[in-house]
What does this fold into?
Amino acid sequence: MRAAIVKSRQELTLEEVAEPAPARGHVLIEVAAVGVGFVDVIARRGEYYDFPGPGAVPGVEVAGLVTAVGAGTSEEWIGQEVLAVLPAFGGYAERAVADADRLFPLAGTGVDAAGAVALGVNAFVADIASHRAGIRAGERVLVLGAGGGIGVLATQAARARGAEVTVVTSSAERGARLRALGAAHVVDRTRSPLDDGDSYDVVVDTVAGPALEQNLHRLRPNGRYLLCGAAGGPPQPEALAALLTDFHRSPTLFAFSLNSVRPEDLQASWQRITAMLRDGSLAPVVDQRSPLTDADAALRRVESGTPFGKVVLLPR
Ligand SMILES: NC(=O)c1ccc[n+]([C@@H]2O[C@H](COP(=O)([O-])OP(=O)(O)OC[C@H]3O[C@@H](n4cnc5c(N)ncnc54)[C@H](OP(=O)(O)O)[C@@H]3O)[C@@H](O)[C@H]2O)c1
It folds into this structure.
């Protein structure tokens, strides 16, 4: 089969590789769509702790048809269209193996394979973050990195809970698209900074970087800060001093990685996600669809920070 392989820190190439075989507890998926995530950018750079390096295949989310199962795995999966979250990469390929307890059926959701991977890990992050923070109707929520893969879904998930959502993004055009997804207020970070007088019950931050300390100070009393990513650079420990300085306001920091979410909590999240899909409060946002042969360009587009929503590869 064909797969896109990391050749070096700068290069991804399409090659013929051996077919994967599903081990005990796993299934084989005929991949119809793959999500291209920031995690793949970091993996190719050699900066992801769990990526094997040159010779390995990136990609942590695929959608497609289950065609075979490994020992000890229910044959009922065969023939089902699923979204799969892959624990050990391997998604940029015509076929991939996935853990049976990290499969999410697409039947009845109304989304196709591209839409499913545009939800992918980002929808789990957006939903579980909103759920853990206990976002309530009427609360003020700030979404940083709002035009990105997680941000477009976090904006919708917070709005679905009745919050008044402020988004920070990088152009008027992205701001207009975020308003259409439910944002009440838009800050274009290329034109003006956030108003220091404004404060929020919840901050969903996928950017971190040098502004983290200042953003922690934006929490209202009993506020919750969801640190979900670091598209703007790794957070520095000194930034967390803000939590102690603001002790009198009882701030809570959730540092949140999907890697530590238990399979049963992912399944519960999928139930909430599909309920939002059905009532129309959540929809996937696909930035661009490309063939697997364009994997290198797709990864560079994600690295550039310009996509609105999710870049998707279509192996077939
Ligand atoms: N917690 C988890 O389990 C988990 C899961 C998946 C991904 N992640 C991480 O979450 C982060 C975001 O992922 P994503 O898929 O949403 O990435 P993405 O699609 O690249 O979006 C990131 C967004 O952040 C904004 N941004 C980028 N650089 C910035 C900078 N220097 N300063 C301010 N804003 C900046 C941009 O949005 P605007 O142009 O709209 O401002 C960009 O679209 C990544 O670090 C990724 O590794 C975490």
Q: What stands out?
A: The helical segments are 38-44, 113-133, 149-160, 172-180, 212-216, 241-245, 263-279, 295-304. The chain has two domains: 2-111+284-314, 122-258.
